[in-house]
Amino acid sequence: MALEPVNVSEFSELARQVLPKMVYDYYAGGAEDEWTLKQNIAAFQRIRLRPRVLVDVSRVDLSTSILGFKISSPIMIAPTGLHKLAHPEGEVATARAAADANTIMIVSFSSSRTVEEIAATGDAVRFHQIYIYKNRNVSAEIVRRAERAGYKAIVLTVDTPRIGRREADMRNKLVVPTPGNFEGLISVDIDTEKGSGLQSYASQTLDSSFTWKDVRWLQSITNLPILMKGILTAEDAELAIQAGAAGIIVSNHGARQLDFSPASITALEEVVHAVRGRAPVLLDSGIRRGTDVFKALALGAQAVLVGRPIVFGLAVKGQSGVKKVLDMLYDELELAMSLSGCCSIKDITRSHVQTEHEMMRSLL
């Protein structure tokens, strides 16, 4: 492989070469047999494009808006934890790259750097992701700090009452540092004798009793809009809207939670139909190509979130690696739009893609 990657996927192998095995496996791994992990990529490959020709594409505009915030393209940074395991600057470098690319970074609840350190990198639109802990004061404190620091939305992850069975982390007896925001807020005794330290930490902290009715508690402590991340069904999409979600993120947590749950892209259209335009729908998990972004937009997403490639870019080249990943996806999306006859994001429609089910039906 060339030293200089020419596509996003090549950053993965380069990251494998520079990261300790335990750290690489933590970022790259999924739950149990990793069926869903594989399907997150494979499902995109089963969707075909239907390009239109003889369209004036001398100017192609990728800009869009999410919750009223204009960004350069519908490619955002997903919340992923502990970036200092990948690079000494951690999320500070990631945040600078996001600002350079004029896109939105969703900062993880489990970030290595604090809410305030990331905000201090400059004036940019950022959202903050949270989990609900048994000690609600911990979650509430992070939300309030994010709001004071100028974050523009809260992203509530709803698919993690318990952590998934991540067997690579169990084999490696994963040891993780305390996230930056939790210094002085929480103290947990981590036991790695029986496996993953992350599993030990999560079992002591995550609130598995949190339900739809408890969303009102979160709404009561912040004035920020709340997006819900981890929705995979029409039923839950409707409940999320009824609960006041300002946005829906279709996600299977990067296949790190429930193995044999659907690839996110295969659940997208069901959720879009259920939401019926009442809130923006975003797609997380499996984005590796600009054509993946195009397919998600054609199936109804307003934007996509990119996770592992961002961390791998950070590991390989720091801030410039993150920016390179974003630039690659931007350039590939621009090319896909040009070759499909789309001059703007709104020009991308359902007629531009054909799903596997539709292909099979056409053969009958």
SS class? alpha/beta
Our estimate of the beta-strand percent is 5-15%
Query: How are helices and strands ordered from N to C?
Result: HHHEEEEHEHEHEHHHEHEHEHEHEH
Average residue pLDDT? 94
Strand order of the largest sheet: 4-11-10-9-8-7-6-5
Overall helicity: 40-55%
Radius of gyration: 20 Å
Cα end-to-end separation: 43 Å
Indicate the low-confidence ranges by residue numbers: none
Biggest sheet layout: 8 strands, parallel
Total of helices? 14
Overall form: globular
Q: Could you tell me the number of beta strands?
A: 12
List the helices and strands and how they pair.
Elements: H1 10-18, H2 21-28, H3 35-45, E1 48-49, E2 64-66, E3 69-71, E4 75-77, H4 91-100, E5 105-107, H5 115-119, E6 126-130, H6 136-148, E7 153-157, H7 167-172, H8 197-205, H9 215-220, E8 226-231, H10 234-242, E9 247-250, H11 264-275, E10 281-284, H12 290-298, E11 303-306, H13 308-340, E12 353-354, H14 356-363
Parallel strand pairs: 4-11, 5-6, 6-7, 7-8, 8-9, 9-10, 10-11
Antiparallel strand pairs: 1-12, 2-3
Describe the fold and architecture.
The chain has helices at residues 10-18, 21-28, 35-45, 91-100, 115-119, 136-148, 167-172, 197-205, 215-220, 234-242, 264-275, 290-298, 308-340, 356-363; strands at 48-49, 64-66, 69-71, 75-77, 105-107, 126-130, 153-157, 226-231, 247-250, 281-284, 303-306, 353-354. The protein is α/β, with parallel strands linked by helices and 364 residues long. α1 packs antiparallel against α13. The mean pLDDT is 94.
